[in-house]
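call fold(seq) -> tokens
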Amino acid sequence: MGSLIFVGLGLFDEEGITMRGLRAAREADIVFVELYTSYMPGLSLERLEEMIGKPVKLVDRAVLEERDAEPLIEEALRGKEVVLLVPGDPMIATTHVAIRLRAERLGIKTKVIHAPSVISAIPAITGLQSYKFGRSTTITYPERGQLSEAPYRAVEENRARGLHTLCLLDARAEEGRFMTVREALSIMLKLEEMLGRGVIGPETLAVGVARAGSEEPEVRADRVSALLEHAFGPPPHSLVFPARLHFIEAEALMVLAGAPEWVKDWLK
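ret:
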């Protein structure tokens, strides 16, 4: 029986992989990579293959989800050591948890090698305290004209507990669509119109982040109305709705995210 190792690639390009992950890929019999669960704009498959020293097979959503990762499982059942390279940290996406459980049930030994994740990067980039984040959520594109209320509810519930909300933004790699901060804010304002619970408005404080993990991420904290006009540049984008701030968090947003002085009004 072989093994299946999930290796994180980090956030932006192939240099986000750890030394441990790189060693695992170099020692593996076969290496797969998926790039649909998160967008890595700086990643080059050619450079990645040069680093690893062997070919890397690209697999899509259909292989990992609809076919239950059959090509990977079959190789491991033949006694091969298989590596799956994954954007960010491997187990953030539930897809990979399901694959790992299936492999374990079949007697395939699995292992996880971690890497930077947007969940840990956002507090570091913004200066917001990590222990003050509540449940994260995803703002998705409308399905059949319907908007998911889940992100609106998450912000409402977290704020009631004094917790910040990290909003991941929809990424549809197969369609080449990656949600922007502007699109996400527009969706949240539409949800406010629909639900009317006073959670999000033009004056609400929000923080937009673009290209976390790159050499020059774009970070901006301001009113929703101002962020709608801000040029964040290429994706991937993320969005944070802070709750009340500690005074150090307020200072961090001013220094690190260009927040106006009025951000001090959000002190708890």
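The first strand starts at residue 3 and ends at 8.
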